[in-house]
Structure formats: structure tokens, C-alpha cells
Write a structure and sequence with these properties.
The protein is an alpha+beta fold. It has 8 helices and 18 strands. The chain has a 5-stranded antiparallel beta sheet. Bound molecules: flavin-adenine dinucleotide. The site of flavin-adenine dinucleotide has 33 residues, from strand 3, strand 7, strand 11 and strand 12. It is found in: Cytoplasm.
Length: 340
């Protein structure tokens, strides 16, 4: 099936921050073969297209001159199993949360801690989505892509994806080059709940659940997220706006001496991950606005669009918060959403 391009398409409704943006050329992709065909026809020239999923981790500019490819490749199936795992494959355009709930309904647990994260299956590996003690890469077997330079289909395993904390190959050299078309997950047959996060343990206890099922964990996490995070349908946002900064043990010790309440988690290599939301709150930005954007009153880590914001407004507040946190703590915050 050949691809139909539309001209001057407004993307305001295709990004959860609600930023105004016009795409000069836009196409919806429903098969990997369409991507290969475009690449082989030289459609992209030397420029990388913007690959669009659900738009929940993007800060869009007012105009996009590059081609925008909205990935709507569907399909989900059990493709096999061994003694220890179910192998489940999903098209990149499947809605992430619907996919997670479907795996639970089918009796294949393992992704429940990532319930209610907005967006698509194909975008999940891009920043290696994570929440409540689980990262997507821990459950991924492999993924399928189309190389938009050559049109070739390329399969990648865990190592090839170079996953890190909210990071992967697809945020660096692979950005705009590899369009992810499907992801295969490796879900454990011998399931144990991951409830070491205090919020999850507390929510389950409040529900009187001692021995949770995968659905119980998913339901608890959905309830926590609905309480804590602003609904993008009601107020524009892209979830966590900054990554949690990872600092050396010596910087952490120095900070701890000055700020005894500073929250931190030790990493495998001895470095310490700080809570960006806490730093922002201490810098006085929780619930405070600058122009039409602000740091959310319920969770300082989330920047929200109070109405009519542009990317310039977002950048101005981001820079101001970064400068204040740097000034107070000597720690540089890194923006999490992608800025094409
Ligand atoms: C309320 C809220 C809560 C959130 N909570 C979390 C959370 O708990 N944990 C977390 O990790 N994230 C969270 N996020 C961020 C976001 O939901 C995830 O990053 C999600 O994976 C983005 O999916 P998307 O389809 O919307 O991607 P988009 O925003 O459309 O794209 C994000 C990036 O991925 C690229 N991309 C998209 N699809 C593909 C593809 N098929 N192939 C190659 N590249 C692609 C894009 O080019 C872009 O660079 C949250 C966001 C919101 C709004």
C-alpha cells in the first residue's frame, strides 16, 4: 500500500503538552513495508523524518519542515514460549497501556508496574520507559526496525539497543534513523510481584491486599498515578520534565551535610540518583508559573501548560528552573522529553 502525504497538518492534538505545531508533510504508516518503500524512493533525502507515536514525550516547535511519520502499525500476539517465559510481540502503533492490560488479561504478567504510561509500544524502548521499580528493557527480548537510510529491515537485541536510564540508541545515533515497527517481550512464567516501592506497598495495604495478583498491582499503580499525575486530557504535560540526576557519592555526601533530608538511591556503581522533583520543590518552583507554563502543584517534576504555551515558553521556564537548582545544589537537571 503506497503512502499518502498530507500538507500543513496541525499537530496540536498529537502532542500531550498541547504545543502548537504545523507539520509541512505528514503521513500515517500502517505497515513496515511502507517505510522501506519511502526510504528506497529517497523521500527523506539527507534529513531525518520525525517519527511520531502518541506525542507524550515531545516538545514540538511551531513548525516542522521535516517529514512527520505517525506510526500506526497494529497487531499483538503470543509468538512462543519456553519453560520460563512467554514471548509476546506487539506492533509499534499499539497503545502501551492497552497492551499491558491485554497481557494481564491473557495471563502473561510482567509489565504491570508500567501500567498507565501514555504513548505507544514503539516509543517505549526509545527512552526505556520505567516506573515503580521496573524498566521496559528488563522485559524486552528484541525489536524490529526499518533503517530509514536504506529501507532495510533490522532486528535488534537487548545489547544493540544500548539501554540506559531513560535512554537508548534511539535517542542518539538511532534517532530519526531507525523506525521501530514491533517489539517482542519476554514475560516470566514464574511471576513475583515487584512492590518494593513504598507507594505501591502502601496502596496495596490500604486495599487490604496481602498476596497481590498481577492485576492487583496494576490497579494499585493506576490508582496512584491518577492521584499524582495531571491528566493530559485536562492539562497539557509530558510527564516527568527532568531526569532524576545521578551524582557521584562525594557530591552526594557534601549535599547530605547541607541538606540532611535530601532523598537519594544508591546505584550499582556507587553513584547516587537524586529526586529531581525534590530539588525543584526546594528551589521554590512547586506550583509556581512563569508565563503560561508552571511546575505542577501536585508533583514539582511535571511541567504543565496552563493554556496557550509555545515551546519558547517551555524552554524559558526549563532554563530558569535549571539555573535555580544549579545555584542551590550545584546539580544540573537534564530535560527528559525529546525536542525535535
Ligand atoms: C502523564 C504522563 C506520565 C508519564 N509517565 C511516564 C513514566 O512513568 N515513565 C516513563 O518512562 N515515561 C513516562 N511518560 C513519558 C511518555 O509517556 C513515554 O516516554 C512514552 O514512551 C512516549 O510514547 P509516545 O508514543 O507518546 O512517544 P512520542 O512522544 O510520540 O515520541 C517520543 C520519542 O520517541 C520517538 N519515537 C516514537 N515512536 C517511535 C518509533 N516507533 N520508532 C522510533 N522512534 C519512535 C519519537 O521520535 C520521539 O523521539 C509520561 C508522560 C505523560 C504525559
Amino acid at each position: 500500500m503506497s503512502v499518502t502525504f498530507q500538507q500543513d497538518v496541525p499537530l496540536d492534538r498529537y502532542n500531550t503538552f498541547g504545543l502548537p505545531c504545523v507539520a509541512r508533510r505528514y503521513a500515517e504508516i500502517i505497515t513496515p513495508a511502507q517505510l522501506s518503500e519511502l526510504a528506497r524512493a529517497g523521500e527523506f533525502g539527507s534529513r531525518s523524518p520525525l517519527i511520531l507515536g502518541g506525542g507524550s514525550n515531545l516538545l514540538l516547535p511551531a513548525e516542522l519542515d521535516d517529514i512527520v511519520l505517525k506510526i500506526s502499525i497494529r497487531g499483538r500476539e503470543l509468538i512462543g514460549s519456553d519453560d520460563d517465559h512467554h514471548f509476546v510481540r506487539a506492533g509499534a502503533g499499539e497503545n502501551w497501556h492497552d497492551f499491558v492490560r491485554w497481557t494481564l488479561d491473557m495471563g502473561w504478567p510482567g509489565l504491570e508496574n508500567l501500567s498507565l504510561i501514555p504513548g505507544t509500544v514503539g516509543a517505549a524502548p526509545v527512552q526505556n520507559i520505567g516506573a515503580y521499580g521496573l524498566e521496559m528493557c528488563e522485559r524486552m527480548l528484541m525489536l524490529e526496525t526499518v533503517d530509514l537510510r536504506s529501507g532495510a529491515r533490522v532486528t535488534m537485541d537487548f545489547d544493540a539497543c544500548r539501554f540506559g536510564y531513560r535512554d537508548s540508541l534511539f535517542k542518539h545515533e538511532g534517532a530519526g534513523r531507525f523506525a521501530i515497527t514491533a517489539v517482542t517481550f519476554r514475560l516470566p512464567k514464574r511471576w513475583t510481584p515487584l512492590t518494593r516501592y513504598l507507594d505501591v506497598a502502601k496502596e496495596l495495604a490500604a486495599r487490604g491486599i496481602i498476596d497481590p495478583t498481577p492485576l492487583d498491582v496494576s490497579d494499585a499503580i493506576i490508582a496512584i498515578r491518577l492521584r499524582k499525575l495531571p491528566d493530559p486530557e485536562k492539562i497539557g504535560n509530558a510527564g516527568s520534565f527532568f531526569k532524576n540526576p545521578v551524582v557521584s557519592a562525594s557530591l552526594h555526601d557534601a549535599l547530605l551535610a547541607r541538606f540532611p533530608a535530601i532523598p537519594a538511591h544508591r546505584q550499582f556503581d556507587g553513584s547516587m540518583k537524586l529526586a529531581a522533583g525534590w530539588l525543584i520543590e526546594q528551589a521554590g518552583w512547586k506550583g509556581r508559573d512563569l508565563g503560561p507554563v508552571g511546575m505542577f502543584e501536585g508533583q514539582a517534576l511535571v511541567m504543565v501548560n496552563r493554556g496557550g504555551a509555545t515551546r519558547l515558553d517551555v524552554q524559558k521556564l526549563a532554563e530558569t528552573v535549571q539555573a535555580d537548582v544549579l545555584d542551590k545544589f550545584g546539580v544540573r537537571l537534564e530535560i527528559e522529553p525529546v525536542q525535535p
